[in-house]
Structures are given as structure tokens and as C-alpha cells.
């Protein structure tokens, strides 16, 4: 079951990645900034994939597939 905590976790990761991205760009480390952005995106996508998997399992259980 999706709860509000997941939304807050994703928002916190987004804010953290945005701040790190700006700090790295201003210090001249564009490549590290891009890698930080990609790492944040991958973490969020893994969190979402886990929730989607739980959704499919719930649907299977409801319809007894």
C-alpha cells in the first residue's frame, strides 16, 4: 500500500540531488554532477519499481490469477 512517506522520501531525494548538483556544477565538476543526478534517478526508479511490483502482486491476489 502506497503511503505518504514514499512521496516525502522521493521529494527529499530530489531536493538533496538538486542541491548536490548545484554545488558540484558551481565547483566545476559537471561530470560528477551528472553522475549524482543519474544516481538519484536510479534510486527513485528502484523505489517506484518496488511499489509497482507490490501493486501487481495485490492485483493478482485480488483476482486470484
Task: Describe the secondary structure blueprint for this structure.
Elements: H1 4-26, H2 30-63
Helix pairs in contact: 1-2
Pattern of helices and strands: HH
In round numbers, the mean pLDDT is 92
Over the alpha carbons, how many angstroms does the gyration radius reach? 16 Å
Helix/strand-derived category reads mainly alpha
Distance between the termini: 19 Å
The number of E-state strands comes to 0
Helix tally? 2
Helix coverage percent of residues?
Answer: over 70%
Most strands sheet: none
Q: Which spans of ≥5 residues are poorly predicted at pLDDT below 50? A: none
What portion of residues belong to β-strands? under 5%
Give the overall silhouette.
elongated
Description:
With 65 residues, the protein is mainly α. The chain has 2 helices and no strands. It has helices at 4-26, 30-63. The longest helix has 34 residues, at 30-63. The protein is elongated and about 55 Å long. The two termini are 19 Å apart. 2% of the residues are buried. The mean pLDDT is 92.
Which key terms come to mind for this protein?
single chain, 65 residues, mainly alpha, elongated
What's this model, at a glance?
The protein is mostly helical and 65 residues long. Helix content is 88%, strand content 0%.
Amino acid at each position: 500500500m502506497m503511503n505518504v512517506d514514499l512521496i516525502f522520501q522521493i521529494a527529499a531525494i530530489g531536493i538533496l540531488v538538486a542541491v548536490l548538483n548545484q554545488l558540484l556544477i558551481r565547483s566545476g565538476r559537471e561530470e560528477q554532477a551528472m553522475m549524482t543526478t543519474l544516481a538519484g534517478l536510479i534510486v527513485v526508479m528502484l523505489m517506484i519499481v518496488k511499489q509497482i511490483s507490490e501493486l501487481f502482486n495485490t492485483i493478482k491476489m485480488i483476482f486470484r490469477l
